[in-house]
Amino acid sequence: MYENAFNKIERDLRAEEGIANELDYVEQTSWVLFLKYLHDLETERQDRAELNGEDYTPIINGGFRWDKWAAPKVDGEFDHNAARIGDDLITFVDQKLFPYLAAFRQSATGPQTIQYKIGEVFTELRNKFRSGYILRDVLATVDALSFNTQAQRHELSQLYESRIKRMGNAGRNGGEYYTPRPLIRAMIKVTDPKIGETIYDGAVGSAGFLCEAYTYMRSDTLSASDFETLQTRTFYGQEKKGLAYIIGIMNMVLHGIEAPNLVHSNTLNENVMDIQEKDRHDVILANPPFGGGERREVQQNFPIRTGETAYLFLQHFIRKLRAGGRAAVVIKNTFLSNTDNASVALRKELLEAAELHTILDCPQGTFQGAGVKTVVLFFEKGAPTRDIWVYQLDPGRSMGKTNPLNDDDLAEFVELQHIRASGPKSWIVKRADLDEDTFDLSLKNPNAPEAEALRSPEEIIKDMLARDAETAGILENIRGML
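Structure (tokenized):
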């Protein structure tokens, strides 16, 4: 049912001139899904209140309720007479609905409330539907979807994730929002977050890390108080880009987190020297954007000043971690060996401020469309680095769109990491053996079989001449037989 619904929405959107690509598809699907989700949530809360003999005041009132404008009904049947269509529907959405919802940002009691999230979403978003007839078809399809059970939300979340993944093929910016879920799950298993700890991603994107961590930590045996903690006081994130912020909110909602603690802001605008204990977290999971370049005034917020965005994020994460806290952060593998001042200084800081206990070396093609190799740094705050366990991930095949990373590829890494075993693909780097001037962490597997020495040019030429002479002799013999 849900797969068919998503496919129908996609077919409708292909005919909509205001929607140009996969990014627009996910964005416009998101706001419609979000409003249907809110309606189902409010209906559930109202029913619960009535059962308890309590009053309930809806967040969204009057003609802005889903069942008044999106799917008006009489006796459970769609009311064609009350439903807006064509230009009338588009005018209502653009000039009344969106401004009404955006105003919640000012009227909400605080940034962690669902009212504030509604205001944030509809301040950022613009309706790109131009045909009220196509929008009407999409609204009818979404109205048939239900968010009432965990199983339903799970199926919807999987379909939504598949659309986010496809955004990576819609252009360079789309790929910024998607980290392979098997890699995320491996990072979570190693950091092993617990109920009562807080989890943070300062480059939240589509919120894949927070959603997977929620799935990892949630179980049917949780007490009511633990579930409340998981819902409201566990997951935190920040995101700079408007579209990614919207997608992240919707992704968390579909995974079952009712009011995500996501903030729409540039994480790097925060001066890391102002971070206090109350701002810190127990677990950090992130894949910060690399490349690019931040303005000089942003670089002033960091002791190690650099235009490399990922280096600024890494400094932020080191200071955002509580003593004893654990982090897993994806970064370009060139960080391990670059000789520029910022790279050297940052490696030194990481080794001294935290115990860098594990490096996962990812193969080329782990991130589809990215031309760089990456590593995952696992570190714990509070004690300097001693020995580093390195694992060289080798799935035994070329990675790509048709051969993406899967959970089985990472099973051995997760198993061996706990015992830090050495083997053909893993080894220990001793802190005492590092160069004190460069802190170079270049990965060279000492346990890999040595490659055969390359032959000299003279040997190659001699071999070629011998083969030519042999071929000439064979040809002479054949000619003699003719």
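The first strand starts at residue 73 and ends at 74. The CA atoms of residues 157 and 255 lie 6 Å apart.
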